[in-house]
Amino acid sequence: MEARTAGSTPEQESEQVKAFPPEVEAAAAGDKLNGAEESKALEFLVGATYRDVQDVRVQFATPEGMKPLVFRVQAVDGRRLTELEKEHTEGDNPLTADADTIALSAAIVAESVEVIIDPSSGAKLDPHSDRFRGDVPSTAIALEGRFKYQAGLLDGLAGQIRRISGWSPDRVGQASRAVVTASGN
Predict the structure, then answer these.
(1) d(Cα 16, Cα 53) in Å, to the nearest integer?
(2) What angle do CA 9, 140, 79 make, to 5 degrees?
C-alpha cells in the first residue's frame, strides 16, 4: 500500500511503501488481538489519511497503431466525487436523472491526474498545462477533446480512480452476523 508523507514531493511519495502493521494483518486474518495489539491496529487504521497515487496504463490508438500511455493518478475525496456527479447530472430524481458520463469521466480524470507519461520515451506531459489544454478553459474539456473517439479510455480511467478512492467491492468484505454473548440481559 502506498502512502503519502507530509512534506514530501509526489515523486517521493509514489515511491514510498507503507506496509500494514502485523496487528492489522492478524485482525484481517480473523485472529483475536489482545488489548495492546488492538490498540496498535486501531491507531494505524484511524491515523492520518493519505492520497493513494497509482499509475494506470492505457492503450491509445494512433495512426501508427496502439501506443501505451501511463496516467499517474491519485485518489479523489469522496465528497468531491459526489460533487462532480451532481455537476454532470441533469434532473433532481437520482432514479431518472441523466448523467453526461463522458463529461463526468473527463472531470474525474482531470481532478485526479498528475501527469501523463509515454513509457517508451519517458516523456511526461502535465495535463493541466497550457501546452496540453491549448485554448480550452479546463483540463476536463481538453481531455474530452483529446479522447473524443476513445472516450472509453476516460471511462476506464475514471473507474480506476474510483477504485483507488475506495469504491471497489473487493476492498470491503461480506457482512456477517456478529456473535454476541448475552450477559444476563
Answers:
(1) 10
(2) 70
Q: Which set of grid coordinates corresponds to residue 134?
A: 491549448
pLDDT digits (tens, 9 = 90+) for 19-73: 788 888 888 888 899 999 888 888 888 877 778 899 999 999 999 999 999 999 9
d(CA 144, CA 106) in angstroms, rounded, equals: 6
Strand 89-90 relative to strand 113-117, pairing: unpaired
Q: Domains in the chain, start-ordered, CATH in brackets?
A: 10-50 (no CATH), 53-169 (3.30.2220)
Cα separation of 71 and 185, whole Å?
A: 57
Higher pLDDT: 84 or 185? It is: 84
Are the CB atoms for 107 and 88 separated by under 8 Å?
yes
pLDDT tens digit sequence for 110-125: 999 999 999 999 999 9
Cell 433532481 locates to 92
CA pair distance 133, 135, nearest whole angstrom: 6
Indicate the pairing of strand 65-74 with strand 89-90: unpaired
Residues in the chain: 185
